[in-house]
RNA sequence: GCGGCGGUGGCGGAAUGGUAGACGCGGCGGCCUCAAAAGCCGCUGGGCGCAAGCCCGUGUGGGUUCGAGUCCCACCCGCCGUACCA
């Protein structure tokens, strides 16, 4: 017999062995046929294949795989697919630098992801794999685009857009962070361009309301609510007699209308120059507007910036009292929000107050606050004063609705709801994306490409460099086409789609990934959707998650599917940091999963990343911690070798057991109970793994005394429980002790009789302080427990000479004697 | 400013209002070995004490309670998100 201590746990031998079995037997492929088991769709966010997978991917897929495995073993039919978000700028920027076709770079990266996902042993249904850059996928992206266009949900219009001068393309609002391009960090400019949009604003209310229906982290819901930014108020028209134009403003405080002392327009407001023309302020206004344009979004957006602005030399009439108030232009008014113009109420708005103070404008109080609150601006509630006989004296909240009703009757305004959410700008002047399937004909105008001519394939080009228009524009042979309506010459749209379009429906395609006749079959889709558990990073809280919800609702309206929300439950994972900092090339603290998988095996890397802490929190990677988890798996494996194959059933309920057998069997059942609760009730994988560690420690403790059968049961149970986290080692150990396949076994069940013991440790307290610990029978009465505690030597010492005024007995736990 | 999350040993972290610090790392000691590595076993919050044991201890200060890391109030600090949104 081989000396045990010479036995080495060799993941390099174990892991490929099981990967081969799963691959050859296609173990993780899911059938679209309903077999009576409840379905469970487990999905991790689509990876963007650039270079190699990083630690974030390892965490994401280790988490998802644990959920998928656990779900299968508790009897669900599980869909756990994989694909690649393969269009995008990194591959294209690489092409500009090196000339390598983005398709080549992407293919290499995908191959690396595929290889590593296999090496990690993630239980993926590979039969459904695709990349969003493959024509067989983007054909349907284009088809869906046309469906949206047919219903007016995709449209083209001219307007002010965000332009990234580095990436040479427009960006959606969601992709501009602090005035900078979310991708490259360059300052974004405003340009006036004709672009494609999706009408996501039509869905603002539904996107907001349905958040109540889904199990998502509250902070993600909050971020979406804030992004949608619904606010209730009124639209009120202020008339300018010079041009004879009504300028509507949006306000959430119509109750302060009588306090408006001036009127402010955004520098981007199209009428600003027209209004100033011919006044003494014309030149000053021109200068101010020009300056505002050159100022970066960042400078302009700084909250502590002084309130600048110039008068327009015109005035408008406040419709509620006929007062003429001066018009100004100031950059604290944003064109993007509301109507691009505001009524300024310096008495009750901080910003307006600041502006009025700087520019010497009148400040009027129209709401009286409680006693002592006589500072202006006052933004709290109070009583209407100096406004109108009908409203003076009313509480302002009451006056608010009364004033809106009155405006409505008088035709001067109406109730209005305003949103921060803008339509989603989807066209991009870049190459490596999904072509927008429309053509332009001189005779017929814009024409959608007929669906039987899809896909519009992305042509090869020789020059990827963006020049303010898509590189596709240079592919003349491709651009020149015929009009589908009149057959005459036509030109193709050369913009491509935002890659977020690709990833807004991929989870649908997985359900019916190989369907050549349609994007999906509605019945097949209904058998899997919605995704039961979605897992990914919070960085997608707004962008991807909002877009995907919008698509789902739009498709539901088109009767392409029958549910309103794509992701029933969402789990957002924390970041993996290194030395307390985010990993980045510039910091030089990047570590790659491959290093650890190579050194310790995939099971160690996966278990460690789950063991490190609660998965929704950030966690710092520690090399020493990895060693510990590796030791644990090696200890488990060694137990398997030592105990060998044979019967491994749980001791029968009520069987007479030796002390060692009893302790070990109970620990095994305790671990089953604990792991099951930790995994199913919450994502407490860290404590689940520590419970299996405890079981393994208990196995070592009873190695000499416990019977082979009970030891085998304990080891098999440990293997079975660790399987969702360390599938290879678990499979190996389970085979060593039972000869069977762990993934084919149902999830173990704890025997309730084995979860209780005859005695427990009774804590004896005096005045809430622990004074003794005693062994007490589990079935003892409260009185018996009290007597036991009262006689404990150290309790007696603390009670001595005092009066027991109260006794608290918590059966199974403690006795507390309150003395005086 | 606003919103959210968090603050527990040397470190990562664990604790349905009921034994604070499970599990892991690190450290210390022992066994094995010619020796080391690996492995196995034990100890490991701080202070006082020969010991039994006692005192202190979950960011700070109050409160509720027989009992508070946990609940309430007021603060401090850190991280994330968001910010002239009318």
UniProtKB/TrEMBL annotation:
GO cellular component, one term: cytosol
'KMSKS' region, short sequence motif: residues: 582-586
Binding site for ATP: 585
Residues of the Methionyl/Leucyl tRNA synthetase domain: 42-187
GO biological process: leucyl-tRNA aminoacylation
Gene Ontology molecular function terms on file: aminoacyl-tRNA deacylase activity; ATP binding; leucine-tRNA ligase activity
Enzyme Commission (EC) number: 6.1.1.4
Domain Methionyl/Valyl/Leucyl/Isoleucyl-tRNA synthetase anticodon-binding: from-to ranges: 664-781
Keyword Membrane in annotation: no
SUPFAM superfamilies according to UniProt: Anticodon-binding domain of a subclass of class I aminoacyl-tRNA synthetases (SSF47323), Nucleotidylyl transferase (SSF52374), ValRS/IleRS/LeuRS editing domain (SSF50677)
Cross-referenced PROSITE patterns: AA_TRNA_LIGASE_I
Catalysed transformations (reactions): tRNA(Leu) + L-leucine + ATP = L-leucyl-tRNA(Leu) + AMP + diphosphate
UniProt keyword Ligase present: yes
Short motif ('HIGH' region): ranges: 47-57
Aminoacyl-tRNA synthetase class Ia domain residues: 421-621
Predominant subcellular localization, coarse grouping: cytoplasm
NCBIfam families, A to Z: leuS_bact
Name of the molecule in the record: Leucine--tRNA ligase
Higher taxonomy: Bacteria, Bacillati, Actinomycetota, Thermoleophilia, Solirubrobacterales
Gene expressing this chain: leuS
């Amino acid at each position: 017999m081989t000396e045990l201590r010479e036995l080495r746990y060799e993941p390099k031998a174990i892991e490929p062995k099981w990967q081969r079995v799963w691959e050859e037997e296609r173990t993780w492929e899911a059938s679209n046929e309903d077999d009576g088991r409840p379905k469970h769709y487990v999905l991790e966010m689509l990876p963007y294949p650039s270079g190699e997978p990083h630690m974030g991917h390892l965490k994401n897929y280790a988490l998802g795989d644990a959920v998928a495995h656990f779900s299968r073993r508790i009897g669900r039919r599980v869909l756990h697919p994989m694909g690649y978000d393969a269009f995008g700028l990194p591959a294209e920027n690489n092409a500009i630098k090196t000339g390598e076709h983005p398709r080549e770079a992407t293919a290499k990266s995908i191959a690396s992801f595929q290889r590593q996902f296999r090496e990690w042993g993630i239980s993926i249904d590979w039969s459904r794999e695709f990349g969003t850059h493959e024509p067989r996928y983007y054909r349907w992206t284009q088809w869906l685009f046309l469906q949206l266009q047919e219903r007016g949900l995709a449209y083209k219009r001219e307007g002010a857009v965000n332009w990234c001068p580095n990436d040479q393309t427009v960006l959606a609002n969601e992709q501009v962070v602090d005035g900078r391009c979310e991708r490259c960090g360059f300052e974004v400019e405003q340009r006036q361009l004709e672009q494609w949009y999706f009408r996501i604003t039509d869905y603002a209310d539904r996107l907001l309301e349905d958040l109540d229906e889904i199990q998502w982290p509250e902070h993600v819901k909050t971020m979406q609510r804030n992004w949608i930014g619904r606010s209730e108020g009124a639209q009120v028209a202020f008339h300018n007699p010079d041009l004879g134009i009504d300028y509507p403003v949006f306000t959430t405080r119509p109750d302060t209308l009588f306090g408006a002392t001036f009127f402010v327009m955004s520098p981007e407001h199209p009428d600003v120059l027209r209004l100033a023309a011919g006044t003494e302020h014309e030149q000053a206004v021109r200068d101010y507007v020009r300056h505002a344009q050159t100022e970066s979004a960042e400078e302009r957006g700084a909250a502590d910036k002084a309130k600048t602005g110039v008068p327009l030399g015109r005035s408008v009439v406040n419709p509620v009292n006929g007062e003429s108030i001066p018009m100004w232009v100031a950059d604290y008014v944003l064109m993007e929000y509301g109507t691009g113009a505001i009524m300024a109420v310096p008495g009750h708005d901080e910003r307006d107050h600041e502006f009025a103070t700087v520019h010497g404008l009148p400040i009027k109080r129209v709401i009286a606050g409680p006693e002592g609150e006589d500072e202006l601006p006052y933004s709290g509630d109070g009583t209407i004063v100096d406004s109108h006989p009908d409203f003076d004296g009313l509480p302002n909240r009451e006056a608010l609705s009364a004033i809106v009703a009155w405006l409505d009757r008088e035709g001067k305004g109406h109730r209005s709801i305003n949103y921060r959410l803008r339509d989603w700008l989807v066209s991009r002047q870049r190459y490596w994306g999904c072509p927008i399937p429309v053509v332009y004909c001189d005779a017929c105008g814009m024409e959608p490409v007929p669906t039987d001519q899809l896909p519009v394939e992305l042509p090869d080009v020789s020059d990827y460099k963006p020049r303010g228009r898509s590189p596709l524009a240079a592919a003349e042979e491709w651009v020149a086409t015929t009009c589908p309506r009149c057959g005459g010459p036509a030109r193709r749209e050369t913009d491509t789609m935002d890659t977020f379009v690709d990833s807004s429906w991929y989870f649908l395609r997985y359900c019916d990934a190989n369907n050549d006749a349609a994007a999906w079959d509605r019945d097949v889709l209904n058998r899997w959707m919605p995704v039961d558990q979605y897992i990914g990073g919070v960085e997608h809280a707004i962008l991807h998650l909002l877009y995907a919800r919008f698509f789902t609702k739009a498709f539901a309206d088109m009767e392409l599917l029958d549910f309103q929300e794509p992701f029933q439950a969402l789990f957002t994972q924390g970041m993996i940091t290194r030395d307390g900092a985010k990993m980045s090339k510039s910091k030089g603290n990047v570590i790659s999963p491959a290093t650890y998988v190579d050194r310790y095996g995939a099971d160690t890397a996966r278990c460690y990343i789950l063991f490190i802490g609660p998965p929704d929190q950030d966690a710092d990677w520690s090399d020493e911690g990895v060693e510990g988890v590796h030791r644990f798996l090696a200890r488990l494996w060694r137990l398997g070798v030592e105990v060998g194959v044979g019967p491994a059933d749980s001791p029968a309920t009520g069987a007479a057991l030796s002390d060692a057998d009893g302790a070990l069997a109970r620990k095994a059942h305790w671990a089953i109970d604990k792991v099951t609760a930790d995994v199913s009730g919450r994502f407490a994988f860290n404590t689940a793994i520590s419970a299996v560690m405890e079981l393994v420690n208990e196995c070592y403790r009873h190695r000499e005394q416990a019977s082979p059968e009970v030891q085998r049961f304990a080891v098999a149970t440990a293997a079975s429980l660790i399987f969702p986290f360390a599938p290879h080692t678990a499979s190996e150990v389970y085979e060593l002790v039972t000869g069977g396949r762990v993934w084919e076994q149902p999830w173990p069940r704890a025997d309730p009789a084995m979860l209780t013991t005859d005695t427990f440790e009774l804590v004896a307290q005096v005045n809430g302080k622990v004074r003794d610990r005693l062994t007490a029978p589990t079935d003892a009465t409260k009185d018996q427990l009290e007597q036991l505690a009262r006689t404990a030597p150290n309790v007696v010492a603390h009670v001595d000479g005092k009066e027991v005024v109260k006794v608290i007995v918590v059966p199974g736990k403690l006795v507390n004697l309150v003395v005086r």
